[in-house]
Amino acid sequence: MLNFTKVALRRGPRKLLDDVSLTIYPGWKLGVVGRNGTGKSSLFALVLGQLTTDHGEVSLPKNIEIASVAQETPALPLPAIDYVLDGDAELRMLERTLAEAEAGHDINAIAHCHDRLNAIGGYAARARAGKLLHGLGFSGGEQEQAVADFSGGWRMRLNLARALMCRSELLLLDEPTNHLDLDAVIWLQDWLIHYPGTLLLISHDREFLDAVCSHTLHLEGGGAVLYSGNYSQFERLRAEKLAQQGAAYEQQSRRMAHLQSFVDRFRAQATKARQAQARIKMIEKMTLAAPAHLDSEFSFEFPTPERLPSPMIQLDGVRAGYADKPILGGIKRSIQPGDRIGLLGPNGAGKSTLVRTLAGELAAQGGELKRDPYLKIGYFAQHQLEQLDPAASAILHLKRLDPAASEQALRDFLGGFNFRGDRALEAIAPFSGGEKARLALALVVYRTPNLLLLDEPTNHLDLDMRHALELALQAYAGAVILVSHDRHLLSTACDKLWLVADGRCQDFDGDLDDYARWLVSRHRAPDSSAAEDSGPSARDQRRSAAERRQEAKPLRDRQRKLDQDMQKLSKRLAEIEAALADPALYEDAQRGRLSKLVQEQAALGKQLGEVEEQWLEVSEQLEA
Fold it and tell me: CA geometry: angle at 321 spanning 506 and 357, to 5°?
């Protein structure tokens, strides 16, 4: 599929790749890992032909269909679903050719177009695009909105959907989960597992890499080492290799003992809740993998808080939301010192709204919310990077927080976040997203909070920095509330899970695998009462479930009827396709029958597409 032969690549004075030779075979799902700046994105640019090698050769099969995610999205008036459909170039070409053939009454060209459209699933293309958008979090109404109406993060989701729409043989994805929530990450993971082509994936989400990848390519120091297996297998093999080299044995022993103390302490404190047991397993997994991160450039700790009040925050019947849009109601929660709480829930259900309410950025709309006078919050928001001053240096950002601190103390602190030497004195405007994210996190750490509110803190952070954050959170004495699409961080940092869904916030008694199953059941059986809390009686719950089933019955009946219609249409289309494959049909005597079959094929294909769209709409109504 893809060959690199003695490839060398420089960017300015730096040599990113040096004498790299490797072969990637068809069907592989290859995770490309390595520190920022080791050449991961440049390797993709070589494959796409956007860069040329300084030496050596990159070779691919001729006429191979390659898909990748565009980094820019123009503010187009085009509906989102049509923008995604444009990802299938052959489909759009056939549609244009068919329109021209129909205008010129060219029966042979019309027959050829319909035959090819049927072969590539063109009649169901709009429904396929709708499913992609639905999986990435777009509602039915949003799919018809103009591309220009969406924010930057949602436009990146559109670019991802457009790349997935392409019937590619080779798919290149560079950090595809950065703009997704956990639900969309789980959906994309399942889609990629079933992707039939060859995949090259750059990601800093280790659970995602573990689930999707069959091989791992590690870039380091200009070299590229290919490992068989997913990220965890690569990590173990690399740890063994470093151990065999005797690398930093004493440091390794100290780190392992430090981590083991977390395992022992947590095992003694943990309840039998499934998420607590899952966290024990994740910490033990971290202990095994620790040697692979011994040469990390990052090492920091959260300072010990001066006070740990109890409770830190008490919520009694709190309603949260916006003036014109209530989101959550009836919240009865308390946050205690040492709590490790992960927030789960569908996109738009109110996780960030709850975090902003706890942080005081949003006033509670009702109920009572009490904060202890000694509460000190460290809040990392989703858009924290936008609050940084691009003209200021990392040291100046800290100086503004603590004018009395010495420059050496600030330099020492920033060193743990890999801002060393002159880098700590440079204006941050040209910094990468990862560097800005590290600085934003450093500012949160420096404030010595006793409650951490972290809303997607790992966006733009590489694997080494994520590992350092996991270690710091393990040692942190205060409380943590975390929203993240990084399941590894959720598993290692949290021993309680709250489910934010259907206007409520309640305990989730399960682990992240259970949450993935909950999402599937929610999509397949929207009348489920899985999200009900223990408040209503069993009788009330049965009555409520019966009412929901009764409300859903007309929609379910409609869905079954549409299923039957799709089966009939697909069967007839298959019969027509078989008839059109008969060479005798194209003789002059059969011209009338050929024309009739072609017209029927076109009409049935259009009808099938309409029925599939109706099925999607009914399914969304059932889900709602």
Answer: 70
List the domain boundaries for the chain: 1-64+169-248, 75-165, 313-524, 538-623
Q: Is 534 exposed, middle or buried (0-12, 13-18, 19+ CB in 10 A)?
A: exposed
Burial (CB < 10 A; 0-12, 13-18, 19+), residue 523, is: middle
Q: Are strands 2-11 and 55-59 parallel, antiparallel or unpaired?
A: antiparallel
b/e per residue 499-511 (b: at least 16 CB within 10 A) = bbbebbbbebebb
Instruction: Tokens for 368, please give them.
Output: 């009572």
Asked if pLDDT for residue 259 goes beyond 60, the answer is no
d(CA 268, CA 281): 14
Per-residue pLDDT, averaged over 180-199, amounts to 93
| Tokens matching residue 525 | 């059986």
pLDDT at 295 over 60: no
- Residues 178 and 203: their CA atoms lie apart, in Å, by 9
Q: What's residue 536's pLDDT?
A: 46
The per-residue pLDDT for range 96-137, each reduced to its tens digit, is 999 999 999 899 999 999 999 998 888 899 999 999 999 998
SS3 of 9-21: the string is EEECCEEEEEEEE
Superfamily in which the 1-64+169-248 domain is placed by CATH: P-loop containing nucleotide triphosphate hydrolases (3.40.50.300)
Cβ(302)–Cβ(445) under 8 Å?
Answer: yes
pTM: 0.70
User: What's the CATH code, domain 313-524?
Assistant: 3.40.50.300
Asked if the domains at 1-64+169-248 and 313-524 fall in one CATH topology, the answer is yes
Pick the most confident of 7-21, 84-98, 283-297.
Answer: 84-98
User: In this structure, are residues 513 and 189 in contact, taking their beta carbons and an 8 Å threshold?
Assistant: no
pLDDT of residue 532: 39
Residue 259 has which token pair? 């981590």
Judged by phi (left if over 0) then psi (alpha if -120 to 50, else beta), residue 484 lies in beta
pLDDT beyond 50 at 204? yes
